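[recover] target loaded
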């Protein structure tokens, strides 16, 4: 489902060169739940951004769902990303001025989906995460755990084969974090969604199929 071959990422300025990732090769199988761990600044989010085509590697090859993305222009990348990937972030990234259901609908606006169908799909996604009764609320009226459920609904509304989650439980207490993890595990088990999750939480990571560790931009496990 995801293949990185000898991927490196180097950030350069006029005075300094920083290696964020060093020769990373990873293969994620369809239906796998992979977690990535490591200390702050080790390259975890950079790796996830490259998997999500938000950032480009300095060298190496990235293949998503059998498609090499190296020659895609920006519009093709955006379209491919919208159809194949769902994103979950630590800080939710909800739009406070939009209702819950309008936030969930957002990825579908960039597809040729009717307003009626968008509303139906968003309601179904919210039902999957247990928030159908909050459709007309606004983010400011929700708890942190509820906001993350909305973010998950937004990630899955287009039925992507892959979800990339960057510290999805990082801003939540242990109880809310466990609930969010249970939702991700259910999506993986029941729908076969491939999930790659960056986390600092060893307990959460041990619930996934496989764990890799990064240190100073290199894979150590």
């Amino acid at each position: 489902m995801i293949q990185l071959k000898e991927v490196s990422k180097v950030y350069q300025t006029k005075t300094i060169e920083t290696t964020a990732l060093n020769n990373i090769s990873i293969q994620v199988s369809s239906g796998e739940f992979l977690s990535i761990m490591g200390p702050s600044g080790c390259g975890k989010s950079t790796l996830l951004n490259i998997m999500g085509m938000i950032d480009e590697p300095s060298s190496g090859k990235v293949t998503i769902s059998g498609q090499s993305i190296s020659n895609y222009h920006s519009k093709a990348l955006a379209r491919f990303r919208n159809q194949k990937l769902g994103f979950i972030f630590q800080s939710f990234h909800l739009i406070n001025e939009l209702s819950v259901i309008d936030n969930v609908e957002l990825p579908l606006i960039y597809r040729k989906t009717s307003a009626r169908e968008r509303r139906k799909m968003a309601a179904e996604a919210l039902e999957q995460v247990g928030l159908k009764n909050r459709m007309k609320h606004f983010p400011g009226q929700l708890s942190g755990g509820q906001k993350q459920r909305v973010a998950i609904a937004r990630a899955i509304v287009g039925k992507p084969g892959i979800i990339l989650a960057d510290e999805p439980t990082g801003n939540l207490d242990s109880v809310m974090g466990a609930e969010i993890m249970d939702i991700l595990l259910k999506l993986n088990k029941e729908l076969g969604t491939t999930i790659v999750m960056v986390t600092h939480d060893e307990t959460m990571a041990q619930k996934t199929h496989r764990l890799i560790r990064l240190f100073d931009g290199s894979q150590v496990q």
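[recover] notes: The mean pLDDT is 90.
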